[in-house]
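Quick illustration, no need to memorize.
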Amino acid sequence: MKYLPIDSELFKNNRQRFMRSMRQDSIAIFHSSDRMVRNGDSLYPFRQNSDLFALSGLDQEETVVVLFPDCVKEGFREVAFIKKTNDFIKRWEGHKYTKEEARAISGIDKIYWLEEMDVILHELILLAKRIYVNLPEHDRFIPDVPSRDLRFTRQLQERYPAHKFHRAQPLLKKQAMIKSIPEIALIRQAIDITDKAFQRVLHFVKPGVAEYEIEAEITHEFLCNRANGHAYSPIIASGANSCVLHYVENNQPCKDGEVLLLDFGAEYANYAADMTRTIPVNGQFSPRQRAVYDAVLRVLKYARTLLVPGTLLEDYHKEVGSQMESELLELGLLDKTDVKNQDKNYPAYKKYFMHGTSHHLGLDVHDRSNRYDPIQAGMVFSCEPAIYIPEEGFGIRLENDILVTDHEPVDLMAQIPIEAEEIEALIKARELV
């Protein structure tokens, strides 16, 4: 891995938190992500299952973690199974964990080779009454391809039909929403790398450069600072492309007078940053671009004050929408008739701001969560209002990452330039170098 070693106490504490929430006489089983074939013997880059990583720190394929807090067999409350290497694997793929390395990374004492799992796991399951399985549960995505966890669950249900099966995800989501101090530090590291990449872009962008060249500058900075890479596909959207919410082609030239919407974030130790900035390609916003920019920035500043304990996300989004409505009226994009005649299920402001303002952030850029739980201290959210005006050929989106505390929200990206004057000054400073 490119990132520096992580103290195993983080993973020990995560396991303890999870096991405290399990039912009595239960065993929980977690699998690593599948290795995905790209073509022939070429594979897509491996990215560890976020839940297995959170519970163990083991960042290697063909890994299984088993938790059994009530196990009567001494020493088997926590067990991990890892891939056994050989001369062929060493030559073609390189180093794999030794048992000692896996033990040091995870803090799990019982480490076995994966080929030993069937016999050991069979005995442990027979000592349990319940089995927690970790199935993919995203409320806005139903995968077509069965995951390794799902395939294994089907085998377990056939082999142990008398056991009761339980979902691990509700427990994992509740746990993942509240970040520990070490996790916040890793998110901050991802944010610091993202900041460096943005500063690099400000000194590079000018009329005539291509979107893909800017993406290359960002990627360069990420890898030079030990990031895994991008936390998600970067959006480098100039001109009218800035009105395409998930534009990822990144293949057009940046033209004089256009804005450039940049939505990217580094992934460090599997933890994500998520930032959006919109900058003038030539270093100077037009009066209209500036007016829209300032409106979006005011909404962001207001929205982050609302990220406080006890607030429901649904109420939060409605309040941000109300603020956005006021800004759109001031910009002349809406009038009072639009507001009076609006559909309550699809307010008028959504013509220009059609997505949500915030989502949970952590090991995934859209982190595991229950969107209906009230906001609590320790949660980390994106905050990304926007105004898209296709008829005028540009959109403005701004995004910072916010930590909720018992006092007031902490903007984890407060050090990254966002004021229009500062953005313009930093781009112009390039011309003086």
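The chain has a mean pLDDT of 96.
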